[in-house]
Amino acid sequence: MAAPKDSNPSPTVVIIGAGLTGLLTAQALKKHGFQVFIYDSEPHLNFRPRDWTILLHWALPIFSSLLPSSILSQFDKAICNPHLNFDEWAETLPMYNGETGDMLFKSAVPGSRRITRRGLREVLSEGLDIVWGRKVTRLDTETEPEKVKVTLEGEEGVEEEEMWADYVLGTDGAGSKVREILFADQENGEEKAKVKRSGFMIGTCIVDYQDEEMVQKVLEKHPVFAMAMSRGAVGGFGVQYTNEIAPGNIQHTVFWSKIWKGCFSTTPDIPRKGPEAVRYLKQSWQGLSPDFQVVVDSTPEDDTHTKAFVDEMGTWIAQPFGNRDGRVTLAGDAGHPMLILRGQGFQHAVTDVHNYVQALLAIRDSGADRKEVFAAYDKDMVERGSKAALQALEEAELAMDATNVEKMLMVRKGHGRSV
């Protein structure tokens, strides 16, 4: 698996983290003839029990351009409801007053598609050689100035692995180990690199109601996803998965989620998953209009019909770091984890991937200076990511009170690119 230092004139890229950003980067680089090696600390692709949905909107054209046709042709498999007629209403994101049931505003997201993280990972992993169960521990750029020696450890009893790369990209999520390594030589570097508490929590229930009336109540609000503001919380109701049992007979698995201010340090007894989490979320989200409240209150409190998760949301305001003379950098949540308000996180991750691929192509094909190219990449990623993360925090604060609705970016600028 490990590539010798000088075995191939085509640049070798090691990607740490097989999330959406890492897999998308790997497919894009592979399309352009780069040698790509992917390592992930988890034991297999679907190790995490939790799944969630992501709206691909302004970055979808960029996303599509990055992929080989064989992978892009499978994209529909990741869409929450690929059977839908995507008309103007389907490509709109409405926000309701959750207490009255009235629509507050709607945001046009033309051409958008809502996908599941798990579904898109399965599509993007096709044809890639991913080494699971490996954690990066060191990135050595001193031994060989024109290479990076990557050291990875596995489970107990698994021999430590070393390999040489021309470039390393950290796409290992909000708690990025690569980011930690890059900040290690700064004063208070360990603290600087840590993901920070945002002050917001999120609870999600993925529900198989086995009750068509309940499913229709969700679909009536919107066939993809609708948001709802209430006092001290904002949430959403939408379609998670669909299954075509027979032609024209579509079975829907739906979800609802709630975001509120809080953290586990002050409320350690909040259950994090399972039936206890369902009960907590139902009990804590009352006072909704009947059409929303019945969806919440009718959620089954068992593991067979409902998968429930409660998490504390983290963020990190991107700041400059040393990129080892352009050999090591970050992308996606490793570089700018942000709250989900306005759905900007993955759009910026896709932008990172595009810029990263273009940077490597400029170096390989046009002889551009590596240090200059990646200084520009990092500057853009840090400035863009930090602004977007701050905007998401501000949007979350405003979303806690429906009287602030006119101040929200969703109202003033919709879901389009704002950075």
UniProtKB/TrEMBL annotation:
Keywords: FAD, Flavoprotein, Monooxygenase, Oxidoreductase. The keyword Flavoprotein applies. The keyword Oxidoreductase applies. GO terms for molecular function: FAD binding; monooxygenase activity. Its cofactor is FAD. It comes from the Eukaryota. Residues 323-385 form the FAD-binding domain. PANTHER family: FAD-BINDING DOMAIN-CONTAINING PROTEIN (PTHR47178:SF3), MONOOXYGENASE, FAD-BINDING (PTHR47178). This is FAD-binding domain-containing protein. It comes from Neurospora tetraspora. The lineage of its organism: Eukaryota, Fungi, Dikarya, Ascomycota, Pezizomycotina.
